[in-house]
Amino acid sequence: MKKLDSKTAIVTGGSRGIGANICMSLAAAGANVVVNYAQNQEAAERVVSEILSQGGKAIAVAGDVSKSTEVKQLFDRAESEFGQVDILVNNAGVVHYKTIAETTDEEFDQVMKVNAYGAFYGMREAATRLAEGGRVINISSSAVRMMLPTYGPYCATKGAMEQLTRSFAKEMGSRRITVNAVSPGPTETELFMENNESEKIERMKNLSAFGRLGKVEDMGPVVVFLASEDGGWITGQVIPVNGGTA
Q1: Domain residues for 180?
Q2: Which family does it belong to (predicted)?
Q3: 138-154: string of b/e by CB count within 10 Å (b at 16+)?
Q4: Residue 125: inside a domain, yes or no?
């Protein structure tokens, strides 16, 4: 018997990076996984294929989390395929590495809508559709505490996510649903490595107690713990997973 046998998880932004590892970690623990993606169907299908090859169950579902109707449809598809939803991981996110002065209206709107509105829409849907004893796990960022230049709008959205996490936890306790956030530090994802200069990457490594960036494999086990019965007495918390970076 695996920790998450018979459970169904939705992971937004599950096609790449941390999201993909979370999908595979949940599946390895026995969960049925709905791998959400916005545009990269090929990457999402690769995650599904990997899960299926390991004997798990998964489907890829397109959906833009910045649109409430598409978040609703994501839950509809999960319920249609697997019967109910037990776990929601709000992982989808975008970032523009620009100063506040350089950030356009359109860029700020996009970051807010995907990161903050997307998490809000997911939690609002989960409030009535998640099974009793379910789990909501929001993926925030240690950048919220690090006061880094060019992260302002991104940190604003993740700070909003963390406050929503705390309030939502109080609202969902009567249904035995826990609500927590995981806060990765700088992590060796394709997005991070492609959009940062080598000098900055080295500085980020040196901020860690271990002198390295996080790896996507560092995140999945923490999410699985929170999603399982083992994490049932933890709610309303923001858990740093950052190697001592912040």
Answers
A1: 8-185+220-233
A2: Belongs to the short-chain dehydrogenases/reductases (SDR) family.
A3: bbbbbbbbbebebbbbb
A4: yes
**pLDDT values of the chain reduced to their tens digit, one per residue, 246 residues:** 899 999 999 999 999 999 999 999 999 999 999 999 999 999 999 999 999 999 999 999 999 999 999 999 999 999 999 999 999 999 999 999 999 999 999 999 999 999 999 999 999 999 999 999 999 999 999 999 998 999 999 999 999 999 999 999 999 999 999 999 999 999 998 878 887 888 889 999 999 999 999 999 999 999 999 999 999 999 999 999 999 997
Judge whether 117 counts as a catalytic residue: no
Q: Which of 117, 121, 151, 154 is catalytic?
A: 154
Q: What is the spatial distance between Cα 150 and Cα 94, in angstroms, rounded to a whole number?
A: 13
Tokens of 3: 């920790």
Separation of first and last alpha carbons in the chain: 37
Going by C-alpha positions, the residue among 238, 245, 241 that lies closest to residue 163 is 238
Encoded tokens for 224: 């699985």
User: Within a domain: residue 66?
Assistant: yes
Q: How many domains does the chain have?
A: 1
Instruction: Tell whether 205 is covered by a domain.
Output: no
In whole angstroms, what is the distance from residue 73 CA to residue 68 CA? 9
Nearest to residue 135, comparing CAs of 75, 224, 33?
224
d(CA 123, CA 73) in angstroms, rounded, equals 14
Q: Using the 8-state DSSP alphabet, how is residue 244 labeled?
A: T
The domain spanning residue 21 has which CATH number?
A: 3.40.50.720
Q: Give domain status of residue 85, yes or no.
A: yes
